[in-house]
Design a protein that fits this description.
signal, TTHA0802/YceI-like_sf, Lipid/polyisoprenoid-bd_YceI, Polyisoprenoid-binding protein YceI, Lipocalin
Length: 190
């Protein structure tokens, strides 16, 4: 008899936990983008990462139950010139051979006003991890949801630019990771 009660209690708890979780969204990569903004010789430069994936579980009615993770292929950083793209993949910069992915995994997402969230999580880049927090805007676009934000980082904290490239007079230490992720409810598998 106790095992039946335990089984019923377990199924009730599992059902209530499932009800609190947010719904998975499918990212529209064509309508999304991730880029880095920095100054090179005091001239602003914005360059995209061409390959990334984002997993977002979000329900506007339960934003605190949301979660997000992003994986960026570091070798996909496109400064606009094949020679420079090869250079930034080298050991002194992204070291893409050893660290092919940069990741962000949320640890909490909290409402911060109408259409705004505060996101905290762990950013891992070139083998270094840091806890980060940044604001995020959320807006509906038809059946899709658009998440936009900016995450300021210091490149040297992640060893991006080693050796002679630690000199911030050529490439500034301040970098802003800008992103726009457009997603829609995932269609159930048939």
């Amino acid at each position: 008899m106790n095992s039946i009660k335990a089984l019923l209690l377990a199924s009730l708890v599992a059902g209530s936990v499932a009800a609190v979780q947010a719904a998975p969204l499918k990212t529209d990569i064509a309508a999304s983008g991730v880029s880095a903004v920095f100054k090179q010789m005091n001239v602003p430069v914005e360059a995209p990462f061409r390959t990334f994936a984002a997993q977002i579980d979000y329900d506007a009615a339960k934003p605190a139950a949301a979660s997000a993770s992003v994986e960026i292929t570091t070798a996909s950083f496109d400064i606009g010139d094949a020679m420079y793209n090869k250079e930034v993949a080298k050991k002194e910069w992204f070291n893409s051979a050893q660290f092919p992915k940069a990741t962000f995994v949320s640890t909490s997402i909290a409402p911060a006003g109408a259409g705004k969230l505060t996101v905290s999580g762990k950013l891992t880049l070139k083998g270094k991890s840091a806890n980060v927090t940044f604001p995020l805007t959320v807006k509906a676009a038809g059946a899709k949801t658009v998440f936009e934000g900016q995450l300021p980082i210091k490149r040297l904290a992640f060893n991006i630019g080693e050796g002679e490239w630690k000199d911030t007079s050529m490439v500034a230490d301040e970098v802003v990771i800008k992103f726009r992720v457009t997603a829609a409810p995932a269609t159930p598998a048939k």
